[in-house]
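Justification of resources, computational component.

The compute hours requested in this renewal are based largely on the per-chain cost of generating structure records like the one below. Each record pairs the submitted sequence with a full structure-token output. That output is archived, and it is also reused by downstream analysis tasks.
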Amino acid sequence: MSTTNKMTLTIEAKSQNESFARSVVAAFFIQINPTLEQVEDIKTAVSEAVTNCIVHAYDGAQQGEIRIACVLTEDTITVEICDFGKGIENVEQAMKPFYTTVATGERSGMGFTVMQAFCDSVNVTSQKGLTVVKLTKKVA
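The structure output for this chain reads:
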């Protein structure tokens, strides 16, 4: 299946950019005619991924860069959210429900679980200086 369209967005890791990022991805996604529920699903997953970058990769410093790359095919959106922060030491552990590295109790540790619930697949690779969260959502 050939690629029908792609786009890349780079934003600063500031909390006010989270809603912008999910809106841009949603606007891009509508080109392949998803249902309203599918649009909301991808918005939720992107929101969680971007928030993870802001809170964890850059320790909430409100600085750093997040790159979001989207590829549309006839029936699928693939979204890669990349940060260039401290990395995830143990991806498998980080993806478990309720796991969080934030000691204040303000984080639920459900970000990856939410992404998995709203996407067809979630793949995470990480090392210091580059974490990539790849979300895939098919249009039925």
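Residues 30 and 111 are 24 Å apart (CA to CA). The first strand starts at residue 5 and ends at 12.
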